[in-house]
Structure formats: C-alpha cells, structure tokens
Please model this.
Amino acid sequence: MTVKALIFDVFGTCVDWRTSVAREVAAVLPGVDATAFAVAWRAEYDPAMARIREGGRGYVALDELHLENLHRVAARFGVTAPDSLNAAWERLDPWPDVVAGLTALKRSRIVAPCSNGSIALMTRLARHAGLPWDCILGADIARDYKPKPQVYLAACAALRLAPAEVMMVAAHNDDLFAARAAGLATGFVPRPAEHGPGQTLDLAPEAGWDVIARDFSDLAARLPA
Model:
C-alpha cells in the first residue's frame, strides 16, 4: 500500500465538538443545559445534509445549515440564540494527540481534511486548533456531502492522486465503509469520548481497515515513512 496523502474526518475525529460547543453555548445562553443543547444541535446535522444528498435541495454550505439548525434547536429549548453563536463550530478544540500526530504525518505525506464543513469553516477551525493542513478539501470541493462517493473522489482528484493512494482517516466506521467503497485506503482511530459518558457507537473497528491505530501518533508510527 503506497499512501501519498491522508484525508481526515474532522468533527469527532480531530476535534471535540461536544465539549467545545457546550462551552460556547454556556457562555451565550446561561440557564440552558449547554451539553444537551450542543447534542441537539449536532443531531440536526445529518438530517439537514440528507435533504441535499437525496436531491431535495441544492448544495448549501454547512455554515448555513448549522445556522438554520441553531434557530430550530433554540426554539425547541425556548430561547433566542444570536447568529454569532454559529461561530462555535469554528472554535472546536483538538483532541490531545491531534496536532502532534498530524505534524508527524505531514513530514512524509499530504494531510488535509475531508469534512462536510465548508472551506471557510475548516480554515477558521484550523487556525483556532492549530491543525497543520496542507490544503482544505471536502464538501465545498465536491458540492455534496459525505458519505456520497463523489466527496472522497473529488478530494483524490484535487490532489491528482488515485483513490488507492489516498487514505481516509476517521473515528466513524460508516465514513470508512463509504471511503473504501470509493476505492480509498482506510484508517480507523477511535474517539471513545466523542459522545460523552455511555458512548456505544464506534468504540471499535467494524471491519478490517487498512490501519487501526490508538491515536494519531500511533497512526504515524504505523505508516512507513
């Protein structure tokens, strides 16, 4: 296996969205259960993208979907949220191993996000979290959302690499199943704290992924230079 580039899921795999968004909610909406609000906001993420993936709506960047979802969840919680709270998704903190691991991987390979986040969101998030990407790939390039195959393939095409030369790295098995079906190599790194105490999803690999690592530093060690 000759992997020349690694592309990464970001929300959950690289950054701790649950704790970070809850922190921002608590600062802006005192009196609201901030963690419950963050989880409810995130729960609107996939249904909003599904309408686009299924052709019921043209491509809309995730920034706009997040804002629509913010107001939908705020109404459910009986509060009014300022539009500025939407920037919470640009201020997510990385997991402790991520920056050092990406830096090590970058010494020998291209590293880039393949996220459903927009280029604008991913750029600002990278600046906040110190993520040393070589470029920004993902939904905005493909004008569609994972797990549609064109999102993975558009990232490969942008890098002028064959799918087999690109590894998709994620903490989510469904992301890796879709990437493998598109011809990419796959790397699994678990994030057992993504959903907080009692998480039952994605605690272990659900297939024989090409690389299964404890964290990003272990991923770097497992890939030959």
About this structure: The domain at 5-16+91-222 is CATH 3.40.50.1000 (Rossmann fold). The chain has a mean pLDDT of 97. The CA atoms of residues 111 and 134 lie 6 Å apart. The chain has ten helices and eight strands.
